[in-house]
Amino acid sequence: MMRMTWLITAINRRMMKLLVALALIAYIACDFLSLKNRSIQEQGELRIEQKIDEVCLVNWCFVLLIPSMSQKYPPVKFLSERDRKRILITGGAGFVGSHLTDKLMMDGHEVTVVDNFFTGRKRNVEHWIGHENFELINHDVVEPLYIEVDQIYHLASPASPPNYMYNPIKTLKTNTIGTLNMLGLAKRVGARLLLASTSEVYGDPEVHPQNEDYWGHVNPIGPRACYDEGKRVAETMCYAYMNHTRYDIVLQILQEYSEPICKYCKHNQILHFSCFTIKYVDLVNGLVSLMNGNISSPVNLGNPEEHTILEFAQLIKSLVVSRSQIQFLPEAQDDPQRRRPDIRKAKMLLGWEPVVPLEEGLNKTIQYFRRELEFQANNQYIPKPKAARMKKGRPRHN
Ligand SMILES: O=c1ccn([C@@H]2O[C@H](COP(=O)(O)OP(=O)(O)O[C@H]3OC[C@@H](O)[C@H](O)[C@H]3O)[C@@H](O)[C@H]2O)c(=O)[nH]1
Known about the structure:
The chain has helices spanning 2-10, 13-35, 40-70, 95-106, 161-166, 168-189, 225-245, 268-275, 280-292, 309-319, 344-350, 358-374; strands at residues 86-90, 110-115, 134-138, 151-154, 192-196, 249-254, 264-265, 299-301, 328-329, 389-391, 394-396. By secondary structure, the protein is α/β, with parallel strands linked by helices. Uridine-5'-diphosphate-xylopyranose binds next to α4.
């Protein structure tokens, strides 16, 4: 019986489609041969019926065969029903989210990506579209979502300064209403939720390095506040839900580990590369062990290795083989002077620490953003401003 079950599950859906399509072709061929042995009148009537059948069958073959032949997915582990989880990733089309999607899909889970494609791209997850374990939903987390899941990785949020400052009210809504919606969903279906926070909750820190108990030093009315405070409120919401509902809820802090020198270093693409100092391979592994562990409090995941922004800019410049000049601009308001995660908690409780060497991590990050830039019509990563929707003569923030 066990062997039989194994055999059935081993014949995957694509193979089944191929077999059904071959059976249909064989059926048409048999029908054609039997027609040859009928009288001329019978043949005329039958031919009409047969033509109708053939058109339907050929259509079916197309439906079955074309996706089967053309789609090739990365290899996916087989997980038994008991071990296979239904996982929601909000912001799953973004940089971290799409790599997390790849890991969880390849591990054999059922993954639903929810994204409003503000900075994420469909092409980041397009290699999974059509896979039976994968679902992509164009949805804004500010609106409630009703699905059945076992785990929620809540990543949806603009993450870099130009993106979160682009529409500060929307950034606040995404991190507050969006997080409430996801917590509501987690509570309804009894799912475990992991919130991707940010090192920006520490603001411009007064202690160094920062451990998870540090309350932070954030300007609530500065240009970065929509993101910093938005994520801080999101953490508070998780904490409140956890205490009121006793659902497992995990917070996670994404750390950028950079020590800006006295000048703010900004230079077109280099600025964006230098924002992504986390090595995503390490980060994705950390997120998954955090979700599957039993910690229900904030954990710093980041690299405690410190570099100045200038060192990063020079390294990235050499990796992208760029001739662009590094410019020194006046420091932006509320820019943190120094940040470094204390990752002792992650090491002790998760056995996690970053292992990917800096250059390797940066190279992969550069590849991602190179692709991103290729797809931007005018080679700009920052989204173009769109006119605010007008309501009764006043601009409306969506
Ligand atoms: O309102 C929004 C805003 C953004 N998003 C999505 O959220 C994703 C964010 O991904 P990005 O590539 O911009 O950024 P990252 O992957 O680096 O962000 C990640 O690390 C930093 C955390 O603060 C973020 O929450 C986490 O997603 C994108 O796919 C974006 O489209 C939404 O789905 N809804």
